[in-house]
TrEMBL record:
Name the record gives this protein: Nitric oxide reductase activation protein
Spans traversing the lipid bilayer: none
Record PANTHER family: NORD PROTEIN
Annotated Cobalamin biosynthesis protein CobT VWA domain residues: 287-344, 371-409
One Pfam family per UniProt: CobT_C
Source taxonomy: Bacteria, Bacillati, Bacillota, Clostridia, Lachnospirales
Organism of this sequence: Blautia obeum
Length: 490
């Protein structure tokens, strides 16, 4: 578009021309000339690039998303007393984050318009923000987002300062990592490849176990821990019964496997009844020898989806993980329990308990908190690899998830960007990692803890070896059935 800008006194004369130019930009991007769009010609006088980019953004959203659904959602929120002054600006930021990856790739000039628009917006927001306590929160949020975008206008290289800031932010949200720097480099080089290129793995015991400082995230996590424990208290008898049923089922299965079996031999304990064979037959197996099953040892990994889509059922998911862990502890089976989520390109693996930890450590599972996105394939890939390093012959991986692998993390300023991970490609990648683990000899069980509409994706990922548990009272029976079947098969 030609760079034409008129003084305020001349705007009225050229208002129609300006309006038509902006509408044409909107229609060109949206591809739909039947959509109505009313540009802000008044604002064009002092913030031309902002008005132009708003047309681009709205057009892109109309092209790639459902405007009517968003409109109905906003109307509903406002009807139920949501603050319009906060809701609408936040919606604009979300729209920008959603359309940016599409439109900049398809329309090269958009990147420059967006940058110029955000520089105009930065000046405007800085005038609204001060360090005074009464400063409007929405202006602070908008300014943080604007600066994030401007810091990320050149993503060809890595900016050490930006990388360090993001790392520090992850530490503040999830606690310190238990890996050394060299170990972190090694695991990222090994696992963050292909569709997970430029991702970063972050292994931690969680913010409540290893906080940098006791900040708001620490307090939120502590509050959720208390809610999870309260749910356990309110459902104590049901959960205890589930633990007991599952533990006893596993114990019976392992007792059968661990029983010594007796075979005839040419050495061992003499069987007098066979002495008559001496000199009369060629059978020299006059003894019995006890043999212990050499494949009775099992090790189990429990992997729990800790993404934001689990937010409505955090306490229930924590209880399910606790039931499994307590039952395995009572049955004497070494196991590890890990939560996973994805945040700003980091895939965070929170270790609630390790294989040889004492039973009391199971309480940490109630520190489960649902937050951010999830890269199921990368989590499975990483956990399966360490599980294969265990000496036990028989290995089982239990995955509690909602069947929606999705990492739509916003771009990280000053760093190389991971690929968006959602939809069909995310489901295929997760299914691939499940198949690969099974080919390595790991028995993988999917336990579905999501909404029924996502069930078809779960089936595609885990095949026949998944359980859909609608009621926690049936939890131990369903899980026990799958585990017993595997124990009996091995």
């Amino acid at each position: 578009m030609e760079d034409v800008r008129w003084p305020a006194e001349q705007l009225e004369e050229h208002r129609l021309e300006v309006s038509n130019r902006i509408r044409n930009l909107f229609w060109t991007v949206s591809g739909d000339y039947d959509i109505e769009f009313e540009p802000d010609t008044e604002k064009y006088v002092y913030s031309k690039q902002t008005v132009l980019y708003e047309a681009v953004k709205q057009g892109a959203f109309a092209r790639y998303f459902d405007q009517k659904k968003l409109g109905m959602y906003l109307m509903k929120k406002i009807y139920f007393s949501a603050g319009e002054d906060m809701l609408l600006p936040l919606t604009g930021l979300c729209m920008d984050a959603a359309v940016n990856r599409f439109i900049i790739r398809e329309r090269l000039g958009t990147k420059e318009i967006r940058e110029q628009a955000f520089r105009e917006l930065e000046k405007a927001e800085e005038e609204q923000v001060s360090d005074k306590a009464g400063t409007d929160l929405i202006h602070r949020i908008r300014l943080l987002y604007i600066r994030h975008v401007l810091e990320n206008t050149d993503d060809k290289g890595m900016e050490p300062q930006a990388v360090r800031r993001i790392r520090e932010y992850v530490e503040l949200n999830y606690g310190k990592s238990y890996l050394s720097e060299s170990e972190q480099v090694r695991v990222n080089r090994k696992f963050c490849t292909g569709i997970h290129k430029n991702c970063i793995l972050y292994l931690t015991d969680g913010i409540l176990q290893s906080p940098v400082i006791k900040n708001n995230q620490y307090r939120f996590s502590q509050l959720q821990f208390e809610k999870n424990k309260a749910y356990y208290g309110n459902n104590h008898w049901i959960i205890k019964r589930n633990i007991s049923v599952l533990a006893e089922s596993l114990k019976r299965a392992f007792i059968i496997r661990k029983d010594d079996f007796v075979s005839r031999s040419d050495a061992g304990q003499l069987v007098p009844e066979r002495l008559w064979k001496i000199g009369r037959t060629d059978d020299d197996k006059l003894f019995n020898r006890k043999k212990r099953s050499d494949d009775s040892e099992f090790v189990i990994d429990v992997l729990i989806d800790s993404s934001g889509s689990q937010a409505d059922r955090q306490a229930q998911v924590a209880a399910q993980g606790y039931i499994i862990s307590e039952a395995l502890s009572q049955a004497g089976i070494p196991h590890r329990v890990t939560g996973y989520c994805a945040f700003w390109g980091y895939t965070v693996l929170q270790r609630f308990r390790d294989y040889e930890d004492p039973r009391e450590t199971n309480e940490r599972i109630f520190q489960f908190r649902a937050y951010a996105n999830n890269r199921d394939g990368l989590a499975l890939k990483t956990v399966s690899s360490s599980l294969m390093e265990r000496p036990e012959k028989n290995k089982i991986l239990i995955v509690l998830s909602d069947g929606k692998p999705c990492d739509m993390s916003i771009q990280r300023p000053g760093t190389r960007q991971p690929k968006i991970y959602d939809g069909e490609k995310a489901a295929k990648d997760t299914a691939y990692e499940v198949r690969r683990a099974r080919n390595q000899g790991i028995f993988v069980i999917g336990i579905f803890v999501g909404n029924e509409e996502e069930l078809s994706v779960e089936k595609r990922i885990y095949g026949k070896d998944f359980a859909y548990i609608r009621n926690i009272s049936n939890f131990s029976r369903m899980v026990g059935t799958f585990l017993r079947r595997q124990i009996d098969m091995e």
